[in-house]
């Protein structure tokens, strides 16, 4: 069974994952509080990466992103890309 499409939608502390397959669609909802966690509260390399990217987008003069929804969406996309390319992992 191969996945046709995986969509992740971040909204504040919520992450919705939609998996679309040939004959069905599944939705998963997760509350991870990555919108407010600090680096010391992050529990694994995935969360630490997300928080670091999020904070960089908020605090870096050159790359500042003032819109929180955009900042979280960008952090989600970058962190997921790093995970997909096996540069970080989300430990169980």
Please characterize this protein's 3D structure.
This protein is α+β, with helices and mostly antiparallel strands. It has one domain (5-84). Helix content is 35%, strand content 23%. The protein contains 2 helices and 3 strands. The chain has helices at residues 45-59, 68-84; strands at residues 5-11, 14-20, 25-31. The protein has a 3-stranded antiparallel sheet with strand order 1-2-3. Strand 2 (14-20) and strand 3 form a beta hairpin. Helix 1 (45-59) packs antiparallel against helix 2 (68-84). The two termini are 23 Å apart.
Helix-residue proportion: 25-40%
**Apparent shape:** globular
The secondary-structure class comes to alpha+beta
| Main sheet: strand order | 1-2-3
Instruction: Estimate the strand proportion.
Output: 15-25%
- What's the β-strand tally? 3
Helix and strand string, N-terminal first? EEEHH
Q: Note poorly predicted spans.
A: none
* Whole-number total of structural domains: 1
Mean residue pLDDT: 91
> How would a crystallographer describe the biggest sheet?
3 strands, antiparallel
Rg is 14 Å
Cα(first) to Cα(last) distance is 23 Å
Number of helices: 2
